[in-house]
Amino acid sequence: MNEPAAAADLAALDDAAIEERLRDFFFENFETLRLDGGHVLSPDALESGLQQVLLYWRKLKDLAGRVTETEVRLTLPGQHTPEGRSFGIEGIVDIVREDNRTTMYDIKTHEADSVRANIEQYAAQLNVYAHIWQNLRGQELHETAIISTVLPPALRQAVSTGQDERARREMERWDPVVPVPFDPGEVAATIADFGRAVDCIENHEFAPPPVEVLKTRRPGQLRTFAATVCVNCDARFSCDSYRAYALKSGTAAERTFRQYFQENISDQDRDDWLVAGISANESRGLNELE
């Protein structure tokens, strides 16, 4: 989807027409992902995703209408790691210019409460973006902020259970925009952290955090480090820390691990079972959409 063109199209529509167009975009994008990578979602998961998009739009449509530059690419080339390797930093932000003030927004798929509770981690990244914007681009900047796209648990539950009045109250409470103060004096330290990470990657130093860290909860989060970070890592099933965490945690992950490692099922039988399940879910999901 051509996003600037799509944004221009949406600006000319009323709210009902915009939401209908967003529905079309949502299912078009899902179909593209399904064809490109075989991603299949159940009807319930699709509906949940659509509701998140629509509620996000309803909450932030006024801000969206004020955005003057979307998906601005910021780059900081020519950096060097402690071991002398060259690297660059790149990010994408949205810009709002109004009333002689410029605000930079970075969109995150993180819970707003978690962002607020760990604001220094997000400030480090935005400090670099602000540095690029002000010093390399020579543009004025007054504020930076994070936009959280994740629905609060209470709102998500109210919507999923059809509690309209509670959903209305939770929508009013929901504040997905988190102001983040930026400090130019911290830019050098953040770039140095990036450099050390690059050296670790290039040196194949991928030591996972200990199991104790996986069990902890970051401030502002209800779920553990493993449930919020490790679950998004493709290498988690080969990770000693994650395997130790899952096999002792009493969670669904434990049952999955034990089933995989202990059941006497051939690889071919397991593959046949997985393919059959995917095909069934795909057919059921497409029938629901039709």
Key features?
single chain, 290 residues, alpha+beta, 2 domains, five-stranded mixed beta sheet, 13 helices, disordered C terminus
Count of distinct structural domains: 2
**What's the shape?**
globular
Termini separation comes to 22 Å
Main beta sheet strand tally, sense and closure? 5 strands, mixed
Radius of gyration, in Å, reads: 22 Å
User: Within the largest sheet, what's the order of strands?
Assistant: 1-2-3-4-5
Low-confidence stretches: 286-290
Mean pLDDT: 84
Helix content: 55-70%
Fold and architecture overview:
The chain is an alpha+beta fold. It is 58% helix and 14% strand. The protein has helices at residues 3-11, 15-37, 43-66, 112-117, 119-136, 153-160, 164-173, 187-202, 211-215, 225-228, 240-249, 252-262, 267-289, and strands at residues 69-80, 86-98, 101-108, 143-148, 177-179. A hairpin with a 2-residue loop joins strand 2 (86-98) and strand 3 (101-108).
